[in-house]
Amino acid sequence: MVFNFQYITLMLFLFFLFLIDVKQKEKMNYIHTLPKIICVIAYICFWGMRGFIGTDYSWYYPYFNNLSDRLLYAFDDIERIEPGYVIYTYIFKQIWDNYYAFIFFSTCLNVAFMHVLFKNLLKRYYIFGYIVFIAFCANAEFNNLRNIRAILLFFISIESIIKKDWKSFLALNLLGMSFHSTAIFYLPFYFIINRNWKRIILPLIFIGFIFVILKLNVFTKLILFTGQMLGGVYEASAVLFTDNNEDVGFTLGAIMRLLLGFFLWLSYDRIKEPLYRIYINLAVCYLFCFAFFNEIPVFRLRFSLMFAFSLCIMVPYVSIIIQEKYRRFFLLFAFLSCMSQALVNFQGDLFRYDNLLFGIESYERRLNK
Predict the structure, then answer these.
(1) Hey, what's the torsion of the CAs at 263, 153, 354, 18, to 10 degrees?
(2) Under 8 Å CB-to-CB from 197, ≥6 apart: which residues?
(3) pTM attached to this predicted model
(4) Among 42, 173, 204, 323, which lies 20 to 30 A Cα-Cα from 295?
């Protein structure tokens, strides 16, 4: 298996910037320190000028190039594409008909959203947020160009829950749904995500861990049972949907998520601000999705990705608030988890990195490898 160390190199570079940044004296203008500015520039250059990496470029590249010059026809070019993404792509293409410029602009837009969240919630730990994002959320950066809009809009809308402003929350997530329909699952969280979940965290984490290591495949059995009850096309669809599913079982990742759940539980009572309470609950949702959808990879990845951004806030924040006697162990755990997750995520020829600054392989050549 080929390991693509460019990603690890970027993360180590950002970690070096982070160590420099946290040692600087507090400033009123703390967000404009040189290490943070270098971090943002490095992130944009690395992701915004990437070549064809991952899998979904094989769909997004031809979609962009083949999109009609007439907006009404653009909606008919490919079926079942959410209107927000169609309009967003169409407007950009009218301004600049260049896929690489589109990717660069989209990356800058993602960074703008993350900047708003990180500067308000992480402050001196701002750079740490980018490190966690690369480890746990980078798939959304290059494979899920529609999903990432819906995800970031949801996290922007969280402040509306604190303010009890349901209109703003609804508006932002309806906009998110116009980019990816899975954003509909965010709507019920307005009512439940700001509650105290401490009593259910440990049971959920341990039950989920048991499901994973024993490979109980409860969700698969539920889908098959429902299909049999409904019969006909539903039964056939259930069999097709669950065929060739594979669960990951007992792995280092499963242990890492168990430990993360324990640290979240350990820190729960130390979180007093409602906004961070919501983020820690969303981190629990991430762990829940990974455990209970374990046997169906598409569900495991899609649903866990919806909540993975919460780790970008909670992992740095827990390292601040956790009891002093646990802090060094948690920082070591967080660093090793991010590095190991990146090694797993970016292995293989699909993720072989290239950059426009140094030359990239053509779409056709990369697709046929």
Answers:
(1) -40
(2) 268, 280, 281, 284
(3) 0.91
(4) 173
